[in-house]
Predict the 3D structure of the following.
Amino acid sequence: MFNFKSYARAGSVQEAIQLLGQNPEAHLIAGGTDMLVKLHKGKAQFDHLVDIHDIAELNYITQNDANDIIIGPLTSFTQVAESELICKRIPVLSQAVLTIGGPQVRNMATIGGNLCNGVPSADSATPLIALNAAVTIEGRDGSRQMPLESFFLGPSQVALEQDEILTAITITRDNYTDYFGHFHKYAMREAMDISTIGCSAVCKINDGTLQDLRLAFGVAAPVPIRCKGTEDKVRGRKISPKLLTDIANNVPSDVRPRTSWRAAKDFRLQIITTLAHRVVEQAILSAGGTIQ
Amino acid sequence: MNRQISLTVNDKKKEIRIDVRQSLLEVLREQLGLLSVKQGCAVGECGACTVLIDDVPIDACLYLAVWADGKSIRTVEGESRNDKLSRVQQAFVDEGAVQCGICTPGFVMAATSFVEKHHQQNISRHDIRRGLAGNLCRCTGYDTIVTAVQKCLDEDD
Ligand code: FES
Ligand code: FES
């Protein structure tokens, strides 16, 4: 039996906010694939649960009138991976979520849960920050929106007040139109494993030049991060093998990997430079570019 | 922390009282006596507890029993009909895909949903391995299991 002291089930976003407000120690549980593992180990900070598992209004993938793509936080990874809209418009996201866990876990785990956990290895985070995704947060006093990138504050820390809830993940039209991406997860096993390093690149090319590049890494810092220094340096440059080497050589200045039992810092840096090269190359190729 | 839930288990309707702190794994084994549902790791790593909920495979160890309210659950106990093994069960027997057997019920359920989803599609052995990546087996080396699933995919109805 799991070890928690109180349990309340929310049927709507409003009810969830209310229930959180009533108990300052309450935590949300959604798909359960992370929370129930923590509860199995009996972590005292999760003694009080507000269950949002069945809030239907948070489970959707849609496009608004402006053609922005909006993903409900309770959408499972399987739903994300199998969504026609995602596969057609932002396939880098389905590519990334298919590397998470195994089928049983992907059927339950939610994209919002993955983001709100705030771990640097969240595999859905790098494609989304590379796509400049924004998150919508609702609380007692209404809702606010912020870039997903600034949502991550530190290891297991996100910009959510205790009585707030993530209600939408938005990728605006200008952030995905004409952009092509690629994702690679470096891990010890091909499934059921945590990223040693995760990498997403999203790019836009025009007539042999790299018009825009957005490069993101997981587990390369305390939070999933973008390589803005490198991006600024290479924007507008001609596509060539030299460009790829320059990107790879520049990324170490954008990242801050550390040593853990999974991999040493030096090894992580090695993976990061190798992936920067390969993943950007693949993104350029999928955009129809040639590298010569 | 008790709740009344109603669910369908292997085609039979059940009304049961559960504790909200119970996993579906515990309820299936301890209250409903469905001992095919195994506990290996209890943290979503091994797939030994795989059951189908509304035909979708999930790890019953990471599923609160209260979430099963109104749902339909399939376990290995319900797969054979009139003493005849299901297609997937029979293929596991024929291919020798069972050794110690602890992983087998979970594998059979994961494979059953995979076969139902991909029957007669062009599926490679690698795809099958990916589709069964949530299940661990320490005995067989997986090859016989993949062959069993491949046979089921190719078979006519
Ligand atoms: S017992 Fe559920 S996945 Fe191992
Ligand atoms: S047959 Fe022994 S673990 Fe699979």
Q: What stands out?
A: The CA atoms of residues 12 and 57 of chain A lie 7 Å apart.
